[in-house]
Each structure stands twice: as structure tokens, then as C-alpha cells.
Amino acid sequence: MKLPLLLLLLCLGSAHAAGQAPLAAAAVADATRPDADRARDADRKPAEMLAFAKVQPGQTVVDYFAGRGYFTRLFSTAVGPQGAVYAVTPQLLLDRLQGKPLPPPVSAEPGRANVHETVGAASLNVPVKADLVWTSQNYHDIRIWGGAAGTAELNKAAFAALKPGGYYIVLDHAGVAGLDEAGMAGLHRIDEALVKQEVLAAGFVLDGELQALRNPQDARTARVFETGIRAHTDQFILRFRKP
């Protein structure tokens, strides 16, 4: 590659990254976000998450295991009316709930017409190819409930759901190196190296890591729900790319 072209690409990349910061900040500042979501911002650093995920207007985003919709709402605002957000509930979760109700759908909220709820298993059940598949603090649950086969199915489904060049981001509570199955189930944590191994085996390449939610004071030996460590666990954030 000739030097002028390389410099041009570097400049374009820097401009692209700089352009994401205002978009992320605007999504976080959205006045329609519930107070309960805003109360979690200091711990979840949503602007940094959106920038790391390279979310842009018009994109299709899959929020896998969306919970009460914290990130779903942020994605909805960021991608805008020309984009789409699919909040995918794992079939494994529905099996465990045994008919108990899920949180109210985000798509029913005013201004959230670009949000769609689906149920995913071997397929994420999204009708178009996505730019981003995002899963936050729950990859370990799929591994606990479905074993290695469960996360292998998820990773394969994420790969199939993405456009070439699309991103798959896994954010989760860090466990100690080599944490076994019993440790995962008891602590609701997972070994970062295991996640990398499993996702790379599905055909992804590791594209980036973010340290924004690291906490070196967390010994990684307490359950993530315990008072004092809840919302302050050491968390890894991995960005994978579909070649």
C-alpha cells in the first residue's frame, strides 16, 4: 500500500471513530430513557460501549438476551428510524421460565417502532443480515444452561446472522483462569479465555478488547449478585468480527 493511501485510510478511520462519540453521547442523553436505566449508567458506561460497538445510524443490531432493554433502548436511538434493533430472547431462557412473564417489550414504548422482539435458538430468527450482534452479561448463562453445545449454537447463530465484516460483542463477568463448570454455575462468571476459544472456533476473528469495565479489586471469587461486588465486577468486553 502506498504511503499517501495508508495515511488517508488512517485519517478516515480516525474521523469515523471521532464521529461515533457524539452519536453515543446523544443516545445516552435521550430524554425518553427510563430513570432506572439512567441510574445504571455510571456502572455500565454506555457511551463507551456504543462507541466500541461502532454503532451507526441505519444499522441492524441484534441485542441477544436483552433483559429489561437497557441496551435495546440505546441501540434504538443510535440506529434511528432507518435502522432496526432485534431484541432476541433465548429459547433456553423461556424453557427455564416455564411460562413466567418476560419484562414488557421495548417495542411497545413510544418512539421504539424500530425495535422488534424475537425468540432465538439455532437461529437468531432475524429476517435480515445484521451489522452487530451484542450480548451483555449473559454468555455465561447460556454456557451454564446449555453447556458447550449451548454456546456453540449461539456462536454459530451469531455468525450466520451477521453480514461479512459485522461485529459480535461479548461482555461478561470475568472468572478466574480455568474456572470449571461448577464455578461458572455458582458464581455466574466465565473464564475470558474460554469465551475467546469458543467464539474463534465458530469462525470469528478477535477484533478488539475494551478495558472500561475492568476492576482489579475484584478477586473474581464472589458471586456476581453479592452485596459489595454487584454492579462492580471485573468485566471483559470482546469485539469479534465475521471475516
Automatic annotation (TrEMBL):
InterPro entries tied to this protein: S-AdoMet-dep_MeTrfase_Alr7345, SAM-dependent_MTases_sf
UniProt keyword annotations, A-Z: Methyltransferase, Signal, Transferase
Gene3D superfamilies: Vaccinia Virus protein VP39
Coiled coil: none
Record GO terms (molecular function): methyltransferase activity
Any one GO BP annotation for this protein: methylation
Signal peptide: 1-17
Protein name: Methyltransferase
Organism in which the protein naturally occurs: Rugamonas rivuli
High-level lineage: Bacteria, Pseudomonadati, Pseudomonadota, Betaproteobacteria, Burkholderiales
